[in-house]
Amino acid sequence: MQSIAVFGGSYYSENAPEFQLAEKIGAFLAKNGFVLINGGNGGLMLASAKGARGVKTSQVIGYVPEHEKQFSPNEFCTSMVKCPDRFERLIMMIHRSDGFIILPGGIGTLSEFFTTWDAARTKTIGAKPIILIGEIWKNLSLIISLLGGYLIKDDWKFLTVINSNDPEIVLKKLKTALLGC
Known about the structure:
Number of strands: 7
Distance between the termini: 10 Å
CATH class: Alpha Beta
Shape: globular
Radius of gyration: 15 Å
Number of domains: 1
CATH topology: Rossmann fold
Largest sheet: 7 strands, parallel
Strand content: 15-25%
Helix content: 25-40%
Number of helices: 6
Structural class: alpha/beta
C-alpha cells in the first residue's frame, strides 16, 4: 500500500475552510487506498487524519517528536512513530512516503515543503509527486525569484500546484496528480 504525507499548519481550527478541505483530502486518500502519514499533531494534521479515519480500513501514521511537551498527538492516528526531534521526524516522513501534499501552514510547513522539494530535486529521494494545494501557492515562483533564487525547468517537474480552495476542484485534480503514484 502506498503512503502519502500531508503537511500543513497545526493552528487551524475546525471551522476554518482549510481544516474542512484537509478533512476531505484525508477521506479521499483513505478511500483510494493510501496510507496517510503526517506529523500527528493538531490543525490540518488532525483534520486529514480525522477525514481518513472516517473510512474504516484506513491507516493513519503520526510521526511525533518524543521530547516536545507542547506536542500532543491527535486521537485519529492508528499508530505513532516516535522521533527524537522535528528534523528526524521530517526525514523519516520523507523517506517513508510515496508522495506529498502540502497545505497552507507556517514556518514548519514551509520547511517541510522546501526540504522535500530539495530532496526530490537533488535525487536524494526518487521522483515522487509533491502537490501544493491552495491559492497561497500561486505566487511561489515570484517569491523565490524575489528572494534571489534561481530555478531551472527541471526543478519544477516534481511539483503540481492546485491553485484552488474549492474541495471539488482540489479532489478532482488530486486524483489526476496521484494517478502515477
